Every structure is written in structure tokens, then in C-alpha cells.
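Consider a protein example.
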Amino acid sequence: MNQQPHVHGPDCNHDHDHHHDHGHVHGPHCNHGPAEPTRNPLKDVGRNDPCPCGSGKKFKKCHAA
């Protein structure tokens, strides 16, 4: 079954997060702002810091391997 993409018009006010996985296209009058970039929580962890997963191990011995 091939569905047409959903196009947001001037009355764009429905739950966008619910529809993002359905391949819709934002129209020129859509008030939906750009999504905030996702932050990688492992980027700022030092090798000798505790692993953010909560294992109690050092990062280099846990998720950095």
C-alpha cells in the first residue's frame, strides 16, 4: 500500500512527533520549528570518568571499548 506524504498547511497544529515517522512534508506555512539536535551523552565523558550507564566501571573499560 503506497501512501501519499502528509503536507502541513497553514493550520499545522497537530502532534508532529507522532507523525514524523510517516514521511510527511512540511509546507511553507508550517509553524513547526526545526528539531533540536540530539546530544550524544558519551561525547563529554573522559576515559577515566565513571561510565554514564551506571555500571560503576570506568568509561574506558565499559562503553568506550
Summary: The chain is about 5% helix and 5% strand. The radius of gyration is 20 Å. Residues 7 and 25 are 5 Å apart (CA to CA).
